[in-house]
Amino acid sequence: MNIINKFKVNYNLKLLDDFIVNNNNTEVLSLFLKNKNKNPENFFQLMSYYIGKYRKHIFYENFFNNKLVLINSFDLADCKYLSDFFAFYFDNIKLNFEQDSLSNAIAKDLEQLALSKFSRDIDFNLFVQFSEFFINSLLINQQEKNLFLTSNSAFFEAGDNLFIYPNTTAAYFLIHQNPITIYSNLKNKVGSPQEALNIMFNFQNKLEENQDFNSEFVVKENRQSWNIYSNSWIDPNVVSTYRGLIIPNEDFLKSPHETLTKVLFHLIQAGIKIEMKYDLIDQYVKNNQIPEKNNNDELSNKEKKALISNLDKSALEFFKYQI
Known about the structure:
The chain is α/β, with parallel strands linked by helices.
């Protein structure tokens, strides 16, 4: 860092401290936006300083008016029905929101920033180290828009580094389905029982690549095995702290109106200002009926034994699934 740049960074740090002492939320936001648009390297220094110094400060806890809402499922495709509903409903009630996948959103933001700090692959270690920066930077972009992101990452906690953060998260939705269905879908997709087991239980310790556009950055998600993934999101402390709502995927088929109504009330309870329009729920359900699938694939005794020996019994009991 040259002398002039160092001076600018120190000047901005001093401004940030002064604004926070005076509880001036507007000026802090303006400072972040100005640096992000004009000098992303300085923005990175400023946001990193802010996170490190003020993470446990009351100003930091209350800084963002807009919040993150996470739509999460082991099979990312299971997020689509709810994600599409949000897009339809919010457009109709004129709610200010932004929607994307977690990996897409971070990759796009990193392209805009073009920081020398980051290489092309954002692996799990980098994600853990900079998760709070990634989320804060995304919310800075949206300002007053709530951010709805789909993901199939497991929740993690590594010291002060978390997957998502209480001060920036309004709520999350965990959409789950029977692991037999997940296994059968994987087997049909990849054409091999062993490969389906490898994916479901992450025997090869792979990260997920979910981006659906070409980017200078590849943001990989840490799904882990079905066991680790499921237990991370049904943990009572996680559910309570991040206002989780756990939804069986089959509820969208069997009782869609009731389920979507419950989802909207959950968002209202989480502080997102939403007008209830039951006719819009009816319209979406009528026009987006989910075809009932026959997932009664006969599993061999060998397949059943492999599933039973690898599946976590406490998670199965929590979800009320039987193998």
